[in-house]
Amino acid sequence: MGIALLGMAHPLISKFIQNKTWTTEPLRVAFVAIMYGLTIASLVLLHRARPPLWRAVFATLTGMGLVLLGCQPEIFRRGNEWYASHYYFGMTAALLMVFSLAIVQDIYQDRKHRWRIAHTILNSIALLFFIGQAMTGARDLLEIPLHWQSPVVYTLYDPNCLNQPCNVQVTAPPGQFNPKQPLNVQISGAPPSP
Q: pTM of the entire structure?
């Protein structure tokens, strides 16, 4: 669950800074910051809670916080392919882990081992989601450019190379390649035949 929170913090913070969201939507930025803090607090209290009612309350609050943070537009979700989405695999695994954390006390008190069997089944299902997350994470990382690659990659999307020949020149950022020599990227596209 901590990994899910860290995984959502990076795109939220970096895109808030990049888009200067605090100037256009200060209430949403405050809401996200408060929800992030409350979700962490709920997770800590869930870990410390002993009575079943409080474990259920804090598990529900932690799950709601994860979902609300994940619904922010800055989070890359791949909604059109939800069945093979890194976000949905991770969110499902995190929610299963929240439930597993909520039933830990019951596992040790149950004499018939029903909670232990449920815990084993849930963790096995979560393992499958983690495996799916490993595969989709590699795919998504290859689609999202690194911060030093972004200027080059996004410059390639700007020209309309399908309708006209294109020539894109991008200077290498400092510290990458040879700063004195420009990085020339040639894109040539012939106009489509009618």
A: 0.73
